[in-house]
Amino acid sequence: MLDALPELIRLIRSEPDFLKVAHIVVTRVPDILGCEVGSLFVRDQSTNTMHMIANDGYELPPDQEIIVPAGKGIVGLVAHRYEPLNVPDILANPHFYDHPDTADERYRAFLGVPVMHRRSVVGVLTAQRFEDPFSEDEEGFLTSVAATLSSGLSKALDNREIRLSAESAAIVRPERVIRGVAGSPGIAIGHTVLMQPSANLEAVRDRLVDVDALGAELQKLDIALASVRAEIQGINLSMSDHVGEEELALFDAYLRILDDDAIAGEVRTEIRESKHWAQSAVANVFTKHVRALESSKSSLMSERAKDVRDLGERLLHSLQVIGHRSTGALPKDAIVVAQDITPAMIAEHNLEHLKGLVAISGSINSHSAILARALNKPAVMGVTNLDLSDLEDAQIIVDGYYGEVVLHPTSETIDRYLELVQHDQEFAIELEQIRDQPSETKDGRRVNLWVNIGMVSEISRSLDRGAEGIGLFRTEIPFASRDRFPTEEEQRQIYREHMQAFEPRPVTMRTLDIGGDKPLPYFPIDEENPYLGWRGIRVSLDHPDIFLVQIRAMLKANAELDGILRIMLPMITTIDEIKSAKRLIKQAFDEVIAEGFNVKFPLIGAMIEVPALLWQLDSVCEEVDFLAVGSNDLTQYMLAVSRNNPKVATLYQEFHPAILQTLDHLASVAHEKGHGIGICGEMAGTVEGAVVCIGFGYDVLSMNATNLPRVKWVIQRITTFSASRIAKRAKQLDDAESVLTYIRNQLSALNLEKAIPHHEHPEIFF
Ligand code: PEP
Ligand code: MG
Q1: Are 610 and 598 contacting, i.e. CB atoms less than 8 angstroms apart?
Q2: What CA dihedral angle connects 372, 375, 376 and 382, to 10 degrees?
């Protein structure tokens, strides 16, 4: 039995249509367990009724709906208790519910396991046998199958691929709220623009269309065919100077695949006869040909398979962008939706038209979210249940405060959100007035508010918002937007542009911090556990060639300027790494002086991101001039939770009391040693985080420019005493949720709740 499990799991994972998955499961389970019945029930979350969506074994008329009323039956009990139930004789069980349509009582041995998704029961998978009770092994088997169904079932429900019975469907609103993770604050209302860097034939969901819509699907296919033909002919033309006649003939052969008497004709037939929408018709027909060619032993044929796949994917891509590519620009209220948001996707387009971003991958502190915050674009990340193939030009609301998207919102919902947008705008006007005022607490304590930066385009926005320095220059960003390592002179120019703009304010340059979720396209780091691998200073010390060039560029960029250059080392784990980095910095300094530049020796700081350093702070302080807490990474390493994985996003808690205790400890030790300490992780830019950091005595808060005025507004209205009282109490609480609730309540008591973005959660509207 257990031998059959891997194959069944593979089948489940490779089938995109969940109803087909359900059918496979309920037919394979009785075969494998040697029992009579397999069923899959789905729970209607609003009524708690259990709906059978697939069954093998009962003799039911087609379209017969089986619904178990709320609170009834052993199936209902499995859902209620969140655990498997192995019942040897259902007739002896007080919860047995004799459904009039199933003749259930004949199958007396019952095994049911819940299908869980993110802590709730979304369904129940059952097996039934005439007599022999189920064994523990069988229970383990069914539990494993149910676990594999979890995300597919929840996604199918969210996408309404599975509709429950008419009566319960009637109470489901046409709009859908899908949860992800808050990526960048703010609210955006607009229309989706799908960005799919590479179309994937295997990822297209089958969708049937009404007869009336077939004409439109055929028309889309024609447009896509014309566009791919033009694309290939364009390549052909550009190659004609470089290759001979024979090679060019290959392009013609390639293009013939798109003729009506070849594969393209089959796609047309698939649309007409099977009533598939164009995307799944392309996917089905091309995949069939690719598989046939791939299974051939001939290498010529498998090469041909690649051509066919390439054309299929081009066609699919063209279908997915129809409507957007034709204009070449984003529509005015574009919400870019993609599997992964890349800097290129953002940079390529008119930022004014870009209203918000939604990414299927990523989480709160993945670098795409950080970029969205830097650009002040609301973003929701990790929306794993969003089906991209169903999302062309749909109206959507992005709630970047709470990490939710509302698809197909009703006009009432839109009005509610517009009120919140209006509130934000009014507050923004108030914030503009404090731009040039000092960032000082009510009792006159100065708190330095600096910015995290990485793109030249952010300079003026940062200065406009009153930034008093750069607390973190993410140098990997200019490295990532090239196709090779930038030269020393190229780096010098970029760095100098920032230093000149900020002079005489201090500028903190972080040395290259690649690895983790920040690869360079031209320097791939392929590792199983990238966050625990070759990252930050580890790469720099293994590559003094890259490191020395970067330090020399930083030093030269600061030549003759009054602003203080601070060089900051990321991902420090050992004291020796600091010593080695300092030796190289000294070497670069001597070289730059020898070349005749007038430069001052920079201040050197260590980022506290790796928890091990907490026990070596005395030695760290002896080696450096300042400490900067990278709370994004410190949180992920302290809590053992990836900052980039939506599955564990709720566990990634910067306000975990252990993190607050750590922040407090770090500030005390740094100050005892006479060092300044700053924090440049994302929590410093939240109102709640800023208050606790001020309470712990942090000297510098470095954050995205967007949040800076809001944080300053709070600082000006709070005393050091209040902030410190809040921080000391918050760190004693039990969990992150209590911490946040406590801080927010305290801010409300001080009449500062206006600064907590989107204090009033629109959940109450639904
Ligand atoms: C951090 O880890 O907190 C930090 C500021 O660095 P990054 O987010 O770039 O890893
Ligand atoms: Mg970091």
Answers
A1: no
A2: 0
- Alpha helical stretches, state H, 673-701: 687-696
Which stretches of 482-602 are assigned E, i.e. beta strand?
507-510, 565-569
Quote the ligand 1 centre to 533 CA distance (angstroms). Answer: 16
pLDDT tens digits for 276-292? 888 889 988 998 888 88
Q: Which positions are catalytic?
A: 367, 680
Q: pTM of the full predicted structure? A: 0.72
How far from 253 is each of 103, 236, 239, CA to CA, in Å?
A: 60, 12, 15
What pLDDT does residue 169 have? 40
Element (H, E) at 53: strand 50-56
The pocket around ligand 1, CB under 6 angstroms, is made up of 472, 474, 513, 609, 630-633, 680-681
Span from the CA of 538 to the centroid of ligand 2 (angstroms):
13
Angstrom distance (rounded) from CA 568 to CA 215: 61
Site to substitute for ligand 1 among 607, 634, 677, 686, most atoms within 8 A of C-beta: 607
Contact 605/470 with Cβ under 8 angstroms? no
Q: Which residue has the higher pLDDT, 345 or 513?
A: 513
pLDDT of 145-177, one tens digit each? 999 998 888 888 877 778 776 444 433 336 788
Ligand nearest to the CA of 366: 1
The single residue listed with the structure tokens 């004789």 is 89
Name the residue with the closest Cα to ligand 1, atom 4: 630
Phi, psi of 257 (to 5 degrees): -60, -25
Cβ(1)–Cβ(33) below 8 Å: yes
Considering only CA atoms, which residue is closest to atom 1 of ligand 1?
Answer: 630
The residue whose CA is least distant from atom 3 of ligand 1 is 630
Alpha-carbon 370 to chain mean position: 11
